[in-house]
Fold this protein.
Amino acid sequence: MSPRSASVNEELRRRSKERLLHAAVELVGERGYEATTLGDIADRAGSARGLVSYYFPGKRQLVQSAVHRLMHRTLEEALEREPRTAEGPERMARAIDAILGLARDRPVLMRQHMAGLLQVEVGFVPCPEQRRLAQLLRDTVARHGSQDVDRDYPMLRAQLMGAVFAALMPGAPMPLSQLRTELFERYRLARELGVPPDAGAPGGTTCDTDLSRFFATGVPAAEDPAGPARRQAQSK
């Protein structure tokens, strides 16, 4: 058998990394951060455990990258759903509703993500996934009419993070509807814009438990040689 080409090896590495990101989102969402080990993530992904440390310095960095992937792909899907629009107010409304929707649909995952950002040892970790999320939010701010995106983007990010924190605070959560109203008033958005977190998005894109579309493993489940092992791990 001839050795694999460099391009094939690169594609296999890319798919392995995608499976690790996908597994991290699933497991932390199911069990929480502390109850999920790197070994658990590798097993769910059907990958060798040594690959985790090859791609990521540690568990916190892996989980942050995985959640930022989920956030940026969720936001991208909301912004580009039909009917597509370039209107600034509608895109800002969709962005707000998409992030609030994650707080509703993935409370364990998002709570763990917010807690991780406040950890002094790691804190906020810039990564390709985070930069893609930032690019979408910066574009949203610009389309909304910002004259200074460098100033207004961090404020939007802070407003959204604060809303997620307020919605998920144990013992004293604020209603998503109230947080949405406050954000819509701040950005002068009509209530009928976007998709409220208590409503279903066109096409049934909210509350979707299958997140595989956000992670390009490139191998259908029926053809994935790690599929049986991964499904067995998921059933435990």
Residues 201-206, 219-236 have pLDDT under 50 and may be disordered. DSSP finds ten helices and no strands in the chain. The CA atoms of residues 43 and 230 lie 7 Å apart.
